[in-house]
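User: Run a structure prediction on this.
Assistant: Running it now.
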Amino acid sequence: MEKSVWHRITHGQFEGKWVVFNRLVGAFVRSILVVALIVMPSLLLPNVSADAAQVVALVAMFGAALTFFEYMSAFPGLIEFRDAPPFNRVRFLSLFVTIFLLTLICRGISDPSVLSDFVTAVGALIGYVLDLPYSPVRLMVQALPDESAMQQVNLMRVLAGLSYLSSLISFAVFLGMLHRRSWPSKSGSFNVWINLPTFDPTVGGDVVSRLKRDARVNIILGFALPFIIPAVLQSASSLFGAISVGNYQSMIWTVAAWAFLPSSLFMRGVAMHRVAIMIDDQRRQTYAAADLEPLLA
C-alpha cells in the first residue's frame, strides 16, 4: 500500500516537472521567434544605421522578455487565446511571412536575386489587380506624399497588394482550421480566465451576449480599418510627417500593420463568437441535464 502511494506521488511529481519543462521550452522557442520577427528587416536590408539597429535590438529584447514570461506563467497576462491553438500561431505565421516577403522585395531594389524578383513580380500582379477605385490598396497608395516618385508609388502598390493578400489568406486558413478542428470545443477545456485576460465575465450582463457583442465590434473594426488607417495616416502627416518612403524599415512595418491588424481583429471576432456559442451550448446541456435529473431519480 505504501509502495503504491509512493509510486503515485513520484509519478505526479515527475509529470509536474515535465509540464514545467515543456512550458519553459515552449516559452523560450516563442521568444526566439519573436526576436527573429522583429530583427528580420534590419538584418536583411542593406545600409541600416547603427542607431536603428540598436533600437530594433532593444525592442526585440523587450518583445522576447514579454513573450517568455507570458508563456511561462500559469496566470493570465496580456496575450489572448494563449492556450487555445491555432489562434496565435496563425496570426504570428501570417505576420512573419508578410514581413519576410516585404523585406525581400525592398532588399531586391539594391540587391536583386531570383527570389526577390519573383516575389516582386507576384506582388506587382496582385497590387495591379487589387488597385481598384476606393479599394484599401488604392487608399494606401494615395496616403503617400504628393511629391513621391513613380518608383515609390509602384513600390507601395506592390507592398500593399502583397500584404493585403497575405492577410486574406491567413484569415481563410484560420477559418478552415476552425471548421476542421471544431475549435475550441474539441481542443480540450477552454479557460476563459486564461485565454481572455481582458474580459471579465463577472462584470456587466450575460456573458454570452457580451461575447457576441464584442465579436461583432471586432469584425466591424476589422472590415473598416483597411479603409480608416490610410485616411488617418494622410490626415496625420501634417503633425507627424508622411510615410517615409525612403526608410524601408518603417515602410515595411507600416504596411504590414495596416494589413495585419484588420485580419487579426477579424480572427478575434470569429474566435470570441465561437467561444460564446460553446458556452451557450454547455449551458443548455447543463439545464437539460438538470431538468431530466428529477425524472430519472
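DSSP finds ten helices and no strands in the chain.
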